[in-house]
Amino acid sequence: MQVKRGRGFLSTPGPTNVPDRVLNAMHRPAVDLNDPDFLELVNSCFDDLKKVFQTKNGEIFVYITNGHGAWEAALANVLSAGDKLLVPETGNFSGGWRDVATAFGASVQEIPNDWRRAMDPAKVAEALAADKAQEIKAVLLVHTDTAVGITADVQAVRKAIDSVGHPALLMVDTIASLGTVDFRMDEWGVDVAVSASQKGLMVPPGLGVVAAGPRAVEAHRTATAPRRYWDWGARLQSEGYRKFCGTAPEHHMFAMREALDMIFEEGLENIFRRHQMLADAVRDCVSVWTEAGALSFNAINPAERSNGVTTILTAEGVDAVLLRETARDVFQTALGGGLGKLQGKAFRIGHMGDLNEPMILGTLSAVETTLAYLDIPYQRGGIDAAIRSLAEARKKAAAVAAPVAGPISRVA
Ligand SMILES: *Cc1c(COP(=O)(O)O)cnc(C)c1O
């Protein structure tokens, strides 16, 4: 076994770094599941999760599960067998959610798309307009498809649905986007938002979170898909035990409380700005590397590139798996691999969650070291471009920032 010293970098697009504060918050004894202080903590988390989803009208459901479970939780509550669903293909994750829907007996119509561009909302409008009988129950949209590194325009998809007067629910996978980029559930007319603990929320893997708006809760009353653990009905009753359909994931809730405190200390706006700044630095660096021809951005349109993850394609003859394994095993930096049809053809740099400049520079440096080690051609100067990008962004923020809390303005 190889001896490893120092702290490695977790630069996968989930799970992300769990802050020490969050880990430490978990280091305490279990409590009586009806302990009033604990129930109060749970209620405060549910209230604060609404703020993160930017919803006043939504109901929050927290499950002991991962993102896949949260997908299933959302569908089990609004679907009946035979329901029609519309799924714009965004990348690997729209396919994953589609497969859950198919397993529930839904009839899925997919809008095909290459994995290199965001879905054109006009195609969603077109598909819904063609549904004269208005049988499509819901549109399933992935906000940030983590496989391809592209963030969709959720609001534009909502407008597309409304533009043809279709009653379909809008269900959005925010697993990679929540706490990373702006997501406004109420303002954007999202009926169901699905998320998980281990990405932008900075909590260890293990919680699935679903926010359901009034139209979705209404749909749940008549939907007939089999459900018990996932059922919103019992969970809407106030007792803590029912909220979780059994014993609460106490330590995960301690972690969630701490993570939410950290989120509000920094402020959502500052969090989004920090992600933008770090993502810009990654992109500036990768742009330089790609000049040598062995690497390229998966997302063709720069405006669609995700602020949480960058997917980098490798040219024929470059072993993306070896690259990722070398970065992890030799240089202690875990990257994401290519998923689905990008398997073996891409790697991904996660830049979401509890992350700062030296961490992102460490990751980029480890990737560049890996490229050098494996003799993969890259244009030199990427790290320098990232450094300049970060310095300029901080300077600009310091010049304009109002004196509010958060790491950007604190510099001023
Ligand atoms: C990570 C991710 C998932 C899957 O979440 P798991 O917790 O691994 O089940 C689904 N959708 C998106 C967009 C993701 O980023």
TrEMBL record:
Coiled coil residues, start to end: none
For this UniProt record, the keywords arranged alphabetically read as follows: Aminotransferase, Pyridoxal phosphate, Transferase
- Does the keyword Transferase feature in the UniProt annotation? yes
Which positions carry N6-(pyridoxal phosphate)lysine?
A: K199
Pfam families xrefs: Aminotran_5
Molecular function in Gene Ontology? alanine-glyoxylate transaminase activity; L-serine-pyruvate transaminase activity
Co-factor requirement: pyridoxal 5'-phosphate
Please report the stretch or stretches of sequence annotated as the Aminotransferase class V domain.
35-312
Q: Which residues bind substrate?
A: R348
GO annotation terms (biological process): glycine biosynthetic process, by transamination of glyoxylate
Q: Which family does it belong to?
A: Belongs to the class-V pyridoxal-phosphate-dependent aminotransferase family.
* Protein name, per record: Aminotransferase
Annotated organism of origin? Oceanibaculum pacificum
